[in-house]
Amino acid sequence: MSYTSENEIPKTTNIAHVREVIELLGYHKAKDGLRIPDRVGSYYWYDRNDYKSWSGVELDLYSKQDKILVSTRSTVSRSYWDLLHQNKTIKFLRDLFGGCFYTDAGKNRYWRPDGAPPSPTASGCFLAIWRFKNALMKVNIYLDCRKLDAPIARENSSGLRFMDELNPRLLSNNLILPYVVAVWEDYFRMLFEVLFTCSNNKEKVLKEVRPTYIQMEQILAKNQSIERAITDSLYFQRPSIIVKNFKLIDNNLDVGTPLKKPYKNRKKKLLEVIEGHVLDRHRFVHSGEMNTALFDKQIKILLEDFSVAARRIYEYLGEYYGFHPSDDY
Question: What is the spatial distance between Cα 121 and Cα 119, in angstroms, rounded to a whole number?
Fold first, then answer.
């Protein structure tokens, strides 16, 4: 689902002036590889400052026989600021060049934002879990589409480890594990960067973590922010290490708290379960040792473990920093 608009501009308007206004509004030229009749320009706007944009705004410029047409589009997952910029674009074009516009709300009607704008912390944390959830969705699609019909691709153990190690289903499932841990690490890396960027006590982190010489060169060349450099110096795979890293920002911030409860009446804490999954990943990546119990049922449980853990921490951060966690991902 998306939100679209169309500005109809008189044909007598100089199209070069329209292009100039579009670029002054912060849009950059984009290429999608499509050839669409009458389209003479394609643009994209995205604001990274304070994590304002979630999906950004797409814009296409058309030169029709009887008019100039400017269409904008944002996805259902757009942010408050994406919506504002889409409205701003529509208004500027109409005020400067005349004509009329159409949105999903009707002719010459703007969209109304829902509620107040989120804080940079809330917006950045949402982006982190949004990316994480979308990444896990790819694994579920892969599992739904994967076909392993050979007799050797058993869906349960043969009882012989050497035979299970030849099972392509187990190899496929074990290959999923490094990807899941990678997106798990990216999730916490982004969360840390967001909280560090929005922190009023950055000196505490800077005393503990020093960027490398190469990172300092990147910072001085303005190719990388100091917050990103510090974040890239840390590891975010094992929960026990993640907890220590976040305490660099705030001693009272304990992201391990929501993981200390078991999930689905298990004896082990969710933190211990995730720690075990990460160690399985390390054994597989560094020595090729497979988890021969990781059949389809178990890989789906593993995905649920990571998803629930990420959501618990997102909700914990919402409570700690005073924002309402969103489910619109």
Answer: 5
